[in-house]
Fold this protein.
Amino acid sequence: MSNLSENQIQANPAIIRQDKKRFIKTFWYNYNYVIIFLVIFIAFLIINGSETTWTSITNIFLHSAILGTISLGMGLVIMTGDIDLSVGSAFVFVGGLTIIVYNSTGSIIAALIFAVFMGMLCGALNGVLVGKLKMPSFIVTLAAMLIFRSISQYMMNEMGETRYRVEANLGSYKSLFNFGNGNLLTIPRLAVVFWIIAALIIYLTTSMKFGKNIYAIGSNERAAKLAGINVIWTRIKVFAISGALVGLASFLKIAKDTSFDPATSGKNFELYAIASVVIGGISMSGGKGKITGIIFGTMAFTIIDKIITAMGMNALLNDTVKGLILLVAVGLQMIQKREK
């Protein structure tokens, strides 16, 4: 009789519908970034039509690599409940100095190490001010944004140049350029680097104690302290990692384009990174979200540019469309939070 009752329950249309709704709701809560990405990607395929090729798809991978690398660090910062508005300016600041180092040494390895170290230093400085001195991350990184961009432009003005350029006569120039613009089994090398870094960050947040501490601080800082987590040191390390990723992104930009314009390079990257993180399902209140979502969020954000170009829209409307999509993404997060 009990088996019969269970079968009757399973066959009940109302219960089946309820189970389907529960499944859909659970899938949306956990993987809304996949749905958002698919909607935007399908729109791209429809609008681009017959012009869609494997090359156009791999271009999405390529163009999302640099912003995606920065967004990974931004995601970690936001998970702790903080924000970093300095990533765009730090990107051009570190990139400009890295070009100077590369032109002086001719060494790709030296340039890479310098870029990552310098970026980490900039991030750690923000982390000390936020974690140790308890200054609001919004104010600290806003000030850093102004400082880094200003110094970059001042340096260019003193050098009598309009942009930082890699010297093409260096022996390793061709290797650097080929790395930034070459492919690995038809996939852009920069995209492969981005995915490898993303995999490492995913491992950090899912399998290491440090990653779990990040979620704990973002969820409830007071409870994290009572649990014995060193909140100050964790925050410093998170900002340092974010800075290191900014430095790596600046090196990737150098390899791809061999130049930096201190006035325009990295412009609005802090906003684009935040948007990519939010579209990727990371909660702005901290403590929630998956790094995997940032990969999809960054690619979705990159595809928007492609859609605007394919539609022949005025490029000046680019940020308008991105802003609207960001508002929708945040709105969906708020609805999801209320329903829970």
